Amino acid sequence: MSGADTLRFEVDAGIALLTLDRPHEGNAMTPAMLLALEQAWQRVERDDGIRVAIITGAGERHFCTGASVSALEVGRGSLNNQRHALANRFSPRMCHVTKPVICAVNGLANGGGLHFVADSDIVIASATAAFMDSHVSVGQVSGLESVGIARRAGLGAALLMGLAGRSYRMPAERAYQLGMVDLLEPGPDAARARAHALAAALVQNSPQAMALTKRAIWGSTEMLDPAAHDHGWELLKSHWSHPDFEEGPRAFADKRPANWTADPNARR
Questions:
Q1: How many domains is the chain partitioned into structurally?
Q2: Of 194, 142, 188, 193, nearest to 168 (Cα)?
Q3: Buried b / exposed e along 86-122 (16+ C-beta atoms within 10 A)
Q4: Are 72 and 180 within one domain?
Q5: DSSP string, the chain
């Protein structure tokens, strides 16, 4: 799946690579790209041959600068009558992707581009990248991506970017210190290479075990104790009946690669 003015989608060795490919406009998202992203995440989720996904931007200056101003249609359509879950389906978390998703931030992430940072499982950034939320500077409300940033980097970081708008760009080093970025690399190419190397390592793990681990960790951000630990415990126990639960230790003892089962409903 590809388009000259939208999204590149490539699959190799169990890794799906999604590239926002509109460098002439800061990799900003058009309506066509939003639709392509939703379709891409759906494919990532349903294709058993895909184990891990990476999302990045084309070029070196911009990761994603949010919605395309030239294609923005404010106040049109029926979005006012739709709930968030129906109206917004372009990030991995919005599409309920259960597989690991790595975000490789190659340049500036602004506005709507912060959704991918907030909603991916692992964030790797170039030291030359930066993070900004320009909504209020153009009279718009930062009411979605800023919530995810608050969860990932803290209330102060979200408020600083959300209220300062264009007047503040958070350096990648500061984002790394706050935990918004998990791994920091010298440049865009190094960030993408690290993402691919990590994805290749994740491909070797049990798909079902990773899916349940991801579900437990994200679930902990949405519920209080003791519910979060109770939820994690039930997920852990549910894996005991899956073939991977026995295959992992057996493969380790035999000193061979594990033969993982892609079917999450398989039982031993």
A1: 2
A2: 142
A3: eebbbbbbbbebbbbbbbbbbbbbbbbbbbbbbbbbb
A4: yes
A5: ---TTSEEEEEETTEEEEEE--GGGTTPBPHHHHHHHHHHHHHHHH-TT--EEEEEESSSSEEE-SB-GGG--TT-TTGGGS-HHHH---STTTTT--S-EEEEE-SEEEGGGHHHHHHSSEEEEETT-EEE--GGGGT----SHHHHHHHHH-HHHHHHHHHHGGG--EEHHHHHHHTS-SEEESSHHHHHHHHHHHHHHHTTS-HHHHHHHHHHHHHHTTS-TTHHHHHHHHHHHHGGGSHHHHHHHHHHHHTS-------TT---
Q: pLDDT tens for the chain, 268 residues: list them.
A: 555 468 999 999 999 999 999 999 999 999 889 999 999 999 999 999 999 999 999 999 999 999 886 655 544 444 556 677 677 789 999 999 999 999 999 999 999 999 999 999 999 999 999 999 999 998 888 888 999 999 999 999 999 999 999 999 999 999 999 999 999 999 999 999 999 999 999 999 999 999 999 999 999 988 887 888 888 888 888 998 999 999 998 998 999 999 999 899 999 8
- My answer on whether 107 and 223 are in the same domain is no
Residue numbers of the domain that contains 164: 7-202
Q: Are 51 and 33 found together in one domain? A: yes
Out of 161, 178, 202, a domain closes at 202
- Looking at the fold, whether 121 and 38 belong to one and the same domain comes out as yes
